[in-house]
Structure formats: structure tokens, C-alpha cells
Amino acid sequence: MILLALLVAGGAFYPQLSLPLQADSNMQPVQHIDILKGTQPTYLFSAGIDGEIFPAFANYSSLQRPNERQIGTFIVTVSNSTDSTLKAKVSVQVPGWSDKEIQNVEVDAGEVRKLLFAPTFLPRLYRNHEIAPATAELQVTDPIGKPLFTDTASVRLRSADDIYWGKDFKFAPFIASWVTPHDPRVEAVLARAKEFMPARRLPGYEEWKSPDQQRASTFTQAKAIYRALQQSGISYVKSSLTFGRNPDVSERVRLPGESIAQQSANCIDGVVMFASLFENLGMKPVVVLVPGHAYVGVRESEDSDDYLYIETAITGRGATFENAVRAAERGIAKHDDKDVRRIRIALARDSGIYPMPGPGHDSRHLTEETESEVASSQVGH
Asked: Structure pTM?
């Protein structure tokens, strides 16, 4: 991995995500400040992070109500230097890539207001796996539709695989966007994993069981999932290179469906893949970051603070599940607590970070190969 090597002792981090997030670059909250008087309002249009749009952020922001957003895909700064209140309709769109978001705005005389826009992007964005150019359009009209101002901004759309960690891994909780429990390929793996279970069941925690029984069941289910992935041929391929600005704080992370289809995963790819499988079963996964590496964990019982940790990078080496557990325990234990960062997926969900949409979320986008794989898994192959 590229970025996990940047983790340093004492760096700022959010082991438990708590909004509001502090924004980088032009991802700013709404502000109101006094300005000098002039003859007409002015508008400033800015996009993404240094002009680049990351799909995980765009998806998160588009799911928030405009007045509740912490970050935006676009910012329109309205400076009303006149003597009267400005009333206008402001819209933002990326033609061919997004819908149009419209906000009605009132800006008092002598004030500046920053509007956060997050138009909903089309599936095309989440199928895009390379940096792509696009043009964003800003339109401002009065309440009855008379044009007041137009502008465009050149943007670069980052690959759907690209995560922006931010300085000191400020945005690490967004790794939860890559945890995609409902991807058909994830569910196909679970269909295979159940064949390694007693009575061919993957029941999750089961509330009626005691904590000790849940703990034993969690170990057995995790082992079955590990064996199913091992049998599928998953092995380590680094493949973290990406393109664009801020390469020291961004990285490629495969979505689980890609890793399963390609039978390839580096450590963080493997972590989000296992986390997706656990979350699908209603279990509670955690992503663990240490300097230079990542592990996955799953809560041993529903109400326990204890986790079963797994070293996912050795899945393809023929290592037993027990060895993978011991390797994770040793790997985490050798680091000081302050260097171990844990991202609880359930907590990220509570904060509004949901799975990124993708081709695997829509059966219309399944390839014939995937349809065959899902069908065969459902009959126990």
C-alpha cells in the first residue's frame, strides 16, 4: 500500500467518525461575512478538491439535504454587495455526468454566503475507472427565471476506485464507502461459504445465543468465508497506483466486486472485501490501519467490545485461517495503541457514509459471466 506508510505517531485521526468533518481545500461549510458595498452581486464557482471530484465524496454529499451538508462537491460563493436582499435560483450540473441541483437562495445586503452543491451523479461516474475531464455548469436566475449569471468550471473526475485519505488520514472513515455488502459477487461468495458451515447456514450473531456461543459461531463463520475466498483463487496483487493531484494522500482501492472478479486484492482491498461479507450477515466489521498495512476485524458477539482480527493478505498463500488470525494479532500487537486506527463501519453508517453505487448494485449491469457465477453459487457449486 502507498498511503498507509504515511501513518505516523500522534497524527490527527478519527478512530470514531464524528461529524462535522473538517474540510480540505474548497470543501467548506456555509459562512456569512460582511463585505464592502458594490453595484451588483458576484459569484465564485469552485469544484471538488483542487478541481478534482472523488466519487465517494460526491455520493456522500448527494445523500445529504443541502442545509445539512458538511461538505459539497461544488461551492458557489455569492457576495451580495448591494443595498438589497438578493433572491435567486442557483443551479449546478455536470452535463452527461450528473443531474441538475437547484437551490433557492436569499443573501442579505452586504453579506457573503457559500452554497454547497452535490448534484446526483449518474451510474456512469461509478463505472469510470480512470481520471476523466468534464465541465460543470453554474446558472443563476431571478425567482421568475430571468438569467443573472452563468459560469463553467473545468473538472477532473477521479476513478470510482480512488480514495482521498486527506492529511493525517482525516477522511479515512470514508473507506466505509468501499464496503459494499449487497454486491452480487459478495453474495455469491457467501453462497459458497455456507457450504463450509454446519447445516449449511451463515446465521450472523443470532440474538438467542449466549455471548460465548456467538463468539464460537463468529469464528466458524469467518473461517468459512476465508475458505470460500481461498478456494476462489483470491491472491495478493498490489495495484494501488492512481492518477491525479495530491498523489501522496490518495490511492486506488478496488471495490469488492472487482477484487472477487479479478481474484486479486492488496491488503486494503482484501479488508473491504471481508468487511462487506461480514456486514452482509448483519455482523459488525472494523477496518484497522497500522503504519504500512491494514487488517479486518469483526465483532465477536453482538454486544462485545472484542474483535476477531484477520490478516487478509495471506489468503492466497495457502495459509490456514488460524494462521491468518494469529498473524493479525501479532501484526496489531507490535504497534503502539496510538498508531492503530480503527474505523467501525457501523459508526460510519450512522454518520451517513453508505456504500458507493456501482455496476454490481444493479443486475442490469451484470455480465453474462457474473450471472453464471451467481446462478451456480445458488445451487451450491
From this structure: 0.85
